[in-house]
Amino acid sequence: MATESSSAGACLKMRSIYVSSLTDAESQSGGAHRTSGLPPDQTDGVDHFNENKVTASEEEALDPIQLPQSTHSLLFSEPVFSLPYGFALGLFTMSTTCLVLALVNNINTNDIPANVMPAVRTAQYLSILIALLMEEEIPTGLYLLRMIPRQSLRQKFPQMRYRKFIFSSMMRIFLGYFFLINVLLVLIQATGVIEIFYDVLALEFVQQLDDIAFKLAKMDVFGKTMQRACTAKCFRAEFEKKRLGTSRKLSIFLKAIYFFHLCAMFAGMLYVTVHQMRGDYHHDLITVDFANTIWEGAWVKVPSRLPSSQQYEERTLVYSHFNGVYQKNGTHDGRPVYQETRKFDRRPYEEIVPAEIKYCEDISAWVFVHEDIRKLKSSKKTGCHNWLLRSSETTEFDLLNVVGNWKVWIGVIGKAEVTIATNVCKDEMDCNLNGQCRDGKCSCNHEDGARYLGTHCEVRLRDACGTITGEVHNDTWTVTYLRSWSEDFWSGDELYEEYSRPVYSYVAGHPDWDINAANETSPPFLMYSGDRWFGAHVPKGNTTDEEAIWSAVEYHAFWSEIYKTSTFLVSDPTTGSTPVGVDFFLTRERGEQYGPW
After folding, report:
1. How far is Cα 337 from Cα 322, in angstroms, rounded to an integer?
2. Pairing of strands 446-447, 441-444
3. What average pLDDT does the chain have?
4. 447 vs 47, 432, 451, 468, CA distance in Å?
5. What is the DSSP string of 402-426?
6. What is the C-alpha separation between 225 and 41, in angstroms, rounded?
7. Which of these, 66, 69, 73, lies nearest to 164 by C-alpha position?
8. pTM as predicted
């Protein structure tokens, strides 16, 4: 019995360090809380401590304040010119460099996806919570600054400088904010769930290098000097606490800091999410090139611009005739719909029904469609199932990120190379050094004997090529200026362009093309149409000047059927800026046996 009483007394003695006020109250009560059924001499050693009566502040007071076991602590516990101090400073520099490199990379990349899948979005918001739970440098630095005053540190360890202690704590806070900023940038640019978790964990690993290195040093991995520094008595010392009210204020302050970080990161993520859902990160204008693919046997509604028409005829579909600029107009299945624009000025068509590029969720692919073109005359399929070209299966929200060849309908399924580029420029390099990038658009130069055309100033028209001559008959052609049509509509030196190439008008030299007043055709034109140059007569008829101008403005190589009846010259396929150096062929008899021309 004596042994049991002695043991219990020891237990009470240990507890009295933290709850002496409770034991004093118990002794004054005269044993009022003794356990029933036990003699008085056997209840003296029973612990009557009531944990339910301990407040949260008293529970906080049970934990002693000790220095964190981290290499950051060596920055004030060790002399400046010592090995441990240099080791800790080097480790801090390493961690900071890694986080700075990550930050610079994230800022330079600046690749916020157009949108993300629901699983990715869920992972983004969950990772914010995970990152805040993992991040401990900021609260640790603030806690140390608040709870260990100058007097307490001097009393325990006079050799330590408090300004070094402040420096170490501020470094912790600095690293913590670098970590959170990097996490936010990683999350808003992420496109995959695993990518998110890998990147967040990688950043946390960099931030935890100080704790890992400290543990290794204690195990004598880095030598005896480092081991002695990391096992010094300062890491076992308990510092005097401030009064209880101060501790409670600190607890509220730390909670407020966490809440601020949570709100700030959620606000940043929510800002990006809202813009993604609105489609603000989609490209407004893109340039599409369908290469030189031909389908002989497309069923086309005629005339296309009349919605009431249900007549279909068989035509040759040259996909390059649909090359050019496409403009975002609405959405479909959570992705943008891009509509074809005029070849003349890249504005929306007013009469011609434009082609569309959109995403179809039921086939998991981007498709090129036109509501007036069918695969079969009797086909009732519309929309996505009436695709003319389709990408490989993808969930990509950004059309420019779609990879691989496209499938194309040419009577059977074939393969086609489709080139898609954004019309937005970031600097002069995006304008091929032939123009200035202003407000995200290229303003092309006209200098040094050359004029540059195209969405990225990629077409070079030398002044010397303003007038060209045929090799056989010395026939002369010259570029056309819009003011020559009507000064009421245009003035200045604005060129007549189609498909980002100049239009040439015939001047003289060919005996068969010299026009007199009795002819019913206008002088021929050389006009680019996506991948070939066409020489064609434009019938005069009874059209007015305004109607002729409108016909040029609404020109489309496929729907205008410029090659069908009035074409007399067809070039080899080319992407050149002018017809110079390109072989041309005269069209004589027409028929299926001669091919599409």
Report:
1. 16
2. unpaired
3. 82
4. 96, 14, 7, 20
5. --SPEEEESSSEEEE--EEEE---S
6. 54
7. 73
8. 0.75
